[in-house]
Structure formats: structure tokens, C-alpha cells
Design a protein that fits this description.
alpha+beta, nine-stranded mixed beta sheet, globular
């Protein structure tokens, strides 16, 4: 009964009643559950975050995401269904859809970002990833939302200190291949600019304070988070 187990363990995590060791153990079990319920093709009938979809003529993955109102990137549907090329789906094919929305919590003390699915009392833990943070403890705390029209694949970047420009697909671009912009939704953070979650070309800095304030992740890890977080919807809490 993995769906019920996920709900109960997630409720315990949210309650704050677990010791650090117990919480780590719960996250480990929930990660294993997510490998089955979220990141595989398997469709579980009692999972309310999961939909079975039969491809129709003219469908595209991005079109299916839009038509079904999913709060995930189309690449996430491609990932969990093991589809090598987005253009290779065919009429009659069964797909597993994940509805979302996903949200994130960043724990600065442990250099960890936790991904959750759902809202309120229905929210369930999905997976943890290691992150790098801002030098001199410069990553701000607070509650943020993924900014609309901010998510970018192979972004350009201008170093705010040196004004050096890095083009898209430049292997020396320090922010890697994904950018997720964040905006503050509290009075004290609403005027912050330039904050985001991004990749890195220096994976050895994950778990350290090395960025200019942003949250940096490994290449594969940030690709997954990019696919789960939704513009204008997903909340990112940094504490």
C-alpha cells in the first residue's frame, strides 16, 4: 500500500515531530516509493497524482501537458515514460501522466533541496537533492515562487560583477544548462532580483557556499527539478 504509506510518512515529515535521524530515514523510504510512484511508467490506480492517457492522432507531449492541465514540463512526461524522442509517440500508446504541482524546500544548514508534490495536507515528499549555496551565506531565506516566463534551457548569462557575457550552449557558462527564476512573495523579499536555481560547471562546489547567492545543482539533478517546478505555481521555501 505504497500510496497510503507515502501519505502517512509525508504527514509525519510535515509535522516536525521526527528527530533528524528519523526524518532522514523517512526521506529514504519515501524516495524509494517515489521511484515507483513518480519516476517509473507504473500506473497506480489509487494515486491521485497519476493519470493514464491514451495518445490520440496529432498529439504532442507539450500539447498533452497543456490539454490535460498538468503542472509539469513536458520533458518530465517524456522522462517517466522512458521516451527517447519526444516526436516518437504514436496514437494508441499508453502514457503515464503526473499532475503536479511540485514545490520545494531548501535547507541551507544541510545543503539540501526537498521536492514535494501536492498542496496543503495532501502534500507528499518526493525526493531530495544536494545543492550549493551563496558565498558568505548570501542565499536569502524566505518564501519564493517560480517566476513566470523565467525557466530557460541552455540560458545565456551575464556575470553581474564582470559583465562578461556567456552565450547559450557555451560549455564555460557557469550556470550550466538550466535556469529557474525565483521571485519573493513576502514583503522583505519581493524586491530581490537575480535569484534562481541553476546548474553548474563546477560540481565540486555542490555542498559548499560558492555561488553569488543562487542555488546551484548538478546537471542531471537540476534537469529533473526544472521539469517538476512550474512557473507561477511552484513555491520554493528557503530556510
Amino acid at each position: 500500500q505504497m500510496v497510503a504509506a507515502r501519505a502517512q510518512l509525508s504527514a509525519l515529515l510535515r509535522s516536525g515531530s521526527l528527530t533528524e535521524g528519523e526524518a532522514a530515514q523517512a526521506r529514504g523510504v519515501l524516495t524509494d516509493i517515489s521511484d515507483d510512484l513518480v519516476f517509473s511508467k507504473k500506473i497506480t490506480s489509487d494515486d491521485t497524482f497519476c493519470i493514464e492517457y491514451i495518445v490520440r492522432g496529432g498529439d504532442t507531449l507539450s500539447g498533452i501537458v497543456h490539454k490535460m492541465g498538468l503542472q509539469v514540463d513536458w520533458r518530465f512526461i517524456q522522462r517517466i515514460n522512458g521516451i527517447k524522442s519526444a516526436s516518437s509517440i504514436r496514437p494508441g500508446q499508453n502514457l503515464k501522466l503526473i499532475t503536479g504541482p511540485f514545490h520545494a524546500k531548501v535547507d541551507k544548514a544541510t545543503y539540501r533541496i526537498d521536492l514535494y508534490q501536492g498542496d496543503g495536507n495532501e502534500q507528499v515528499f518526493v525526493r531530495s537533492y544536494k545543492v550549493g549555496l551563496g558565498e558568505f551565506n548570501s542565499t536569502p531565506t524566505g518564501i519564493f515562487k517560480v517566476r513566470r516566463s523565467s525557466k530557460l534551457v541552455n540560458p545565456t548569462w551575464v556575470n553581474p560583477r564582470t559583465r562578461e557575457f556567456y552565450s547559450a550552449n557555451n560549455p564555460e557558462n557557469p550556470i550550466g544548462e538550466r535556469w529557474i527564476g525565483l521571485e519573493g512573495i513576502e514583503e522583505r523579499t519581493k524586491d530581490l532580483s537575480g535569484l534562481g536555481i541553476h546548474g553548474t560547471i563546477a560540481p565540486e562546489t555542490i555542498g559548499t557556499q560558492a555561488s553569488m547567492g543562487c542555488i546551484r545543482m548538478g546537471t542531471e539533478e537540476v534537469a529533473q527539478v526544472y521539469e517538476m517546478l512550474s512557473e507561477g505555481v511552484s513555491i520554493v521555501e528557503i530556510r
